Amino acid sequence: MTTASPTPSPVSGPIAGTPAGSGISRRLLSVDALRGLTIAVMIMVNNNGSNHAWWFMEHAEWNGLTPTDLVFPTFLFVVGVSIVFAFEARLSRGATRAQLAWQTVRRAATLFAFGLIVNNLGGAIYHHPHFDPGSWRIYGVLQRIAICYLVVSLFYLWDRRWQTKVAAIVVALVGYWILMRWVPVPGAGVPGVDIPFLDKDQNLVAWLDRQIFPGKMLYETTRDPEGLLSDLPALGTALIGLLAGLWMRSQHTLKTKAMELAIFAMGMILVGAAWAEWFPLNKKLWTSSYVLVAAGISMSLLALFFWIVEVKNWRGKWITPLLILGSNSIAAYMISELLGMVTDLIPLTWNGHRTGPLGYINQAVFYKIDGGLGSFAYSFFYLLVCFVPVWIMYRKKIFLKV
Description:
By secondary structure, this protein is mainly α. It has helices at about 30-45, 70-90, 95-125, 140-160, 160-180, 205-210, 230-250, 255-275, 290-310, 320-325, 330-345, 355-365, 370-395; strands spanning about 10-15, 25, 350, 355.
C-alpha cells in the first residue's frame, strides 16, 4: 500500500569502512526501533484513560519538562534522520531531485490531510448532522510533521551540505528567541517589560494564531500547541535529526559514530539547559532551549540504540515489536487516534451512562486499579489493541509509507 508518511523505507546507508560509492548498504534497524519506541510511548501518553496518570505520563502544564514532552520532538528528530537515508537511497537508484521534490510535496500534503482527519473526524461523528466545519482545527501533530518534512526535505534536496543545516538551525533558534523576547505583542507590549515573558496568552505565537483562526479552531481556544510561528523552531528539531543522519552515513567506524553522537547529544543538552535560564523550556511554545534539550535526549537515545543494535549486534525478540511499529508508525498513530471514535459508534452503557467498548472496559477493569497504576495499565492495554492491526499489516507487508 503506497501512500504518504514520513517514515521512509528502507532506511539504509553505507557500511562503515566500505569505500564511498561501493553501493554496499544495509538497513539501520536502530532507527526503525527508535521510531517504534517513540510511537509506542506516544500512543500510551495520548490515551491515559483517566486523570490520575503518573506525572511522567503527562505534559508539563507550561514551562518545564516531563518525559512525555520528549515524545513528539523525538519523532520529528527521527524524521530528519530518515530523510537523509531515504533520499540518498533513491538518488543512488537513479531518481532525480525533481522527482523527489514532487514526491515530497505530494506526501506532505497527504500527511497534512491525515492530520485534518484525525483532528476533526470525531466532531463529524459525534455532532452529525450539526457538525460545524468552521470549528475544524487546522493545526496538529501530523500537520507539524508534514510541514517540517516538506521544508527540511526540499532544503536537503537543494543543498546537501551540513554547514548550511547548522546555519539554518542557528537562524531558526536564535531568530525565534529574538521574536519571542523582544518583538512587542500587538495590544499588549514588550515581553518581560510590559507583560510577563512567555505569558500563556499574551505571547507572539498565540497572538498570531488568534489572527488567523477563531478561538474555536484552536486547541486551547486562546492558543494552540502546534501554532504557526512555533513551526520555526520545530524545523530546528528536524534539521538536528538530519545532521545526525548525515553523521551516521559518514565513513567513520560504527563505534566512533555511536560515541560521537553521544558527545554531540550531551553538548546540546548542556547548551539548552543553560539557555533555559533566559528562554525557559516550554513544549507548547517549542522554545529554542527546549529544542536543544529534547534533541539532545533524542540523539542520546539514537546513540544508545545504534550502539546496541548496530555496534554490539544485540538483536532478538525484544526488538521485533519496535520494528513492527517503527515500520508503520503513521498507520499506528492514525489507528490510535481514530480507534476510540470508531468503536464509540457501538453503544454500551455503564452505570447509566453511554460509552463505547473501550470506555466500558476501562471503567469495568482499569478504574478498579487505584491511581496511576490503573491509568498506566489502560494505556498499555490501548497500545496492545492498536498493535494488533499494525502487526497484521506487517505480516501482510502493507505499509503506510512516506
